[in-house]
């Protein structure tokens, strides 16, 4: 299903359903399609909002984890959101963590899946020469436990991004920023109920990353999904949604 992209000033976003706000932050190569099953499931019980992060539209100086967090903060203010359930995948998880450290009072809960912020394996040290489709296909397949999830449509999307010189510069800037903006002991300050949902076979943010997050985040619970890679909500949506439904039911906003 195609969702309508709404605008509010300079912000673009998807909004479906009614109820407590469940806000989803996508990753570096994240597309709206990554969250399709999740939106279809939770729009029946929540107001599901996906802000489209301006990964390639900020100035080079602002193209950073902090710059995207500032953009998201302004979006939250513009929408008048509060008491959100905030979910981030990959780079989106990193942005969610930086936001949470500054605005814990705005959240009812935090959900991280394949989040960066401690350690991640990216595309590698260097990007391939433009036009190396096979390299991009293999790298995209590594995101998943089942390489068949990396459809031609998805590979074409990533290929289109890395074939754009300006976008590649922005991707490298964001990847370097994520490595520089490494979180650690400060995560102990986050007391918001946190749900970690992790693919047991994630090679980008491996299981040890989830265990470290679990150790550092005092109010966290960790759930594993077997035979699953870096984008659990996309690869194993049924199991992911069951875990998240249970977690959200235990952390409803007080009436």
Automatic annotation (TrEMBL):
Statement: the UniProt record of this protein carries the keyword Chaperone: no
Keywords (A to Z) from UniProt: Hydrolase
Entry keyword annotation includes Hydrolase: yes
AB hydrolase-1 domain span: 21-130
MF (Gene Ontology): hydrolase activity
InterPro entries according to UniProt: AB_hydrolase_1 (IPR000073), AB_hydrolase_fold (IPR029058), AB_hydrolase_sf (IPR050266)
Highest taxon of the lineage: Bacteria
Stated name of the protein: Alpha/beta hydrolase
Organism annotation: Rurimicrobium arvi
Species lineage: Bacteria, Pseudomonadati, Bacteroidota, Chitinophagia, Chitinophagales
């Amino acid at each position: 299903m195609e969702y309508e992209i709404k605008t509010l000033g300079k912000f673009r976003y998807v909004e479906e359903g009614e109820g407590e706000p469940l806000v989803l932050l996508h990753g570096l190569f994240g597309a709206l399609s990554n969250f399709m099953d999740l939106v279809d499931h939770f729009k029946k019980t929540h107001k599901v909002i996906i802000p489209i992060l301006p990964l390639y539209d900020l100035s080079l100086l602002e193209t950073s984890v902090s710059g995207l967090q500032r953009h998201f903060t302004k979006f939250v203010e513009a929408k008048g959101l509060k008491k959100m359930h905030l979910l981030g995948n990959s780079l989106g998880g990193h942005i969610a963590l930086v936001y949470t450290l500054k605005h814990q009072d705005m959240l009812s809960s935090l959900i991280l899946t394949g989040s960066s912020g401690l350690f991640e394996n990216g595309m590698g040290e260097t990007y391939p020469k433009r036009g190396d489709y096979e390299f991009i296909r293999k790298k995209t397949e590594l995101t998943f436990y089942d390489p068949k999830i990396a459809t031609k449509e998805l590979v074409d999307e990533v290929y289109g991004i890395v074939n754009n010189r300006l976008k590649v510069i922005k991707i490298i800037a964001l990847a370097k920023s994520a490595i520089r903006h490494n979180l650690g002991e400060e995560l102990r300050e986050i007391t918001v109920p946190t749900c970690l949902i992790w693919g047991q076979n994630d090679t980008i943010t491996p299981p040890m990353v989830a265990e470290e997050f679990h150790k550092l985040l005092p109010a966290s619970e960790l759930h594993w999904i077997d035979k699953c890679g870096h984008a659990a909500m996309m690869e194993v949506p049924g199991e992911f949604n069951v875990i998240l439904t249970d977690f959200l039911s235990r952390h409803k906003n007080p009436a």
